Amino acid sequence: MSEATPPLPPATVPPRPDRMGPSRGLLLAASVLVLVLAVVLGMLAVTSLLRPTPVLPEAATGSGATRSSSAGPTATPTPTPRPKVDGSFKFLERVGGGPVRWDPCETITYAVNTRGATSPVRADLNEALRRLSRATGIEFRSVGTTQETFIRAYQRMRYGGVIREAALILIWVDHVDYRAILRRLHDPRPSIAFAKTMAGLFENQDQYFGGIVVMDADATASRGFGSRYAHGSVLLHELGHIMGLDHVTDADQLMYSGRHAHLGLRDLGPGDLEGLRRLGRDAGCLD
């Protein structure tokens, strides 16, 4: 017999062109992942550049103003000195984001009714108005005396009855009459003086055109500005309301109202002055 021919080894089948080995597949997957990450990071970077700069609030003040941060970076910004009046003044009324105020480019006329005064009041009134004018730049002009009571002055200003050409009326009454006025106003709060401001209507609601101060003549025995509750100091406090300032919680300001007042205070505090400045000529004329 002839020798048997050995069997041929099995043929090696080449791989299909659409299938690759494991090493090449991992390399391609890694390349795709890197590409995707690059695209995502690029999109995030672009998004961060397009995000608007946040608006940061200023240090809190009675006016509650805010200011946007600077549009561009600065190398070494120099802080602007600001008076330390945070929370030390507050406006009585606001309209359209700004305080209601008198037109600082017009003179405020005033008349006095001193029938209930127990001693001279003119010296304190003149000094209080002088300090107020210095703080605001607004001028005051006396038009003499008046017989108007609080109710008559209020009705004239609120309802347009022409009784006297005076924008500001100051009235001194005795303690009995003072308490009677408070009862008529349904005001049970203990006080020794009060002020009432009058603002316009419609397009003039951001402007005061009238005001009334009523003083309990029996409650402030000492004249002058020797203490917070001296006659001149109380009068100056009420005139602060007339100009547009409200009470504050800082006991070192004349516009403070509470149980822990600084009794030795003899003049307007820094917060009072800053508030009055923003109500005065520095704020510009009203149309």
Overall description:
The protein is of the alpha/beta class and 287 residues long. The protein has a domain at 94-282: Collagenase (Catalytic Domain), CATH 3.40.390. The chain is built from six helices and seven strands. The protein has helices at 22-50, 122-136, 150-159, 175-184, 231-243, 270-279, and strands spanning 94-95, 98-99, 108-113, 140-145, 168-173, 193-199, 208-216. The strands form two sheets. Strands 4-3-5-7-6 form a five-stranded mixed beta sheet, with helices on both faces. It has a two-stranded antiparallel ribbon with strand order 1-2. The model is unreliable at 1-24 and 39-83 (pLDDT under 50).
Secondary structure topology:
Blueprint lengths: L21 H29 L43 E2 L2 E2 L8 E6 L8 H15 L3 E6 L4 H10 L8 E6 L1 H10 L8 E7 L8 E9 L14 H13 L26 H10 L8
Helix pairs in contact: 2-5
